[in-house]
Amino acid sequence: SRNFENVLNAAKLFVSWANNEFEKCSIDLVVEELLPTIRIPTKKNLNLNNVSTAPTSAISKFEYTVHNVAMDIVLSKLQQHFAKHSELSADFACLDPRNFSKELPVTAFVKLSKLLGFEKAVLKNELQDFASKWEKLKLKLPETYLVQDEDNEDDDEEEEITLNNENQQQKIEQCKEKKRCLNCLLCCYNVLFKYRLYVSAYNNLFIAYKYVLSLSCTQIGCERSFSTLTFIKTRLRNRLSMDNLDAWMLMNLNKDILESLSFEDITNEVVQQSSVLKSILVV
């Protein structure tokens, strides 16, 4: 379904929010909630059997001429984009835990096993066994990632009390961002990795999940990487070596990991690799 009613309700909520914001900021601007009514001339038709089905209201006209046309274009573009990889997309759907209750099709993992160099039957057996135990395995996985280890909570209790409200709110938001859904490909990968099930029981299945999660469904990540490359390797830095360029790219693309590292840890790591820096940095 095209869900035009949901789009219409969302548009009304946005208009209401925008008007409230304009009023708060004392901006003399009002967004109209209703579309302008345009008089559509109609021809008299004496043939009663031939009734015109053209939209009569502005909302109906917008639905047929704008919304439905846009949806058709989006669907056609998606079909063109994923038509070449329909077999691989079907294999990815089999790995989704929401489809564990369904029977595997006969053509499952034909393309994926060929790409990874696995036997199709082995990958099927591992997935079926893992799917039968998924309901119990996912319960052992914590619902959220912890910012600190549980063992260190008592030691850091006094420090947590001294945190201001802003830091506490930021810490709560970090926990919310890392909440697990327990019903996706990433959660399956985390279960296999946490309990080291990839060592013997689900070796091929673990590699399959890792392969799927490493793929980019769109070109956004690739385009973002090239944009970052143009910022780093400029006209004045055109003689950067590949090793240094790779290091700068990794640090720039993984800023969240880089910002989580402390300065002391970085200093200790550098000190261990150079005796000269050790004499300079270590007091």
UniProtKB/TrEMBL annotation:
Domain HAT C-terminal dimerisation: 196-252
Keyword Thylakoid: no
Keywords on record: Coiled coil
GO-annotated molecular function: protein dimerization activity
Coiled-coil region(s): 158-185
Domain of life: Eukaryota
Record bears the keyword Transcription regulation: no
PANTHER family the UniProt entry points to: DUF4371 DOMAIN-CONTAINING PROTEIN, PTHR45749
Protein's name according to its UniProt entry: Zinc finger MYM-type protein 1
Organism of this sequence: Aphis craccivora (Cowpea aphid)
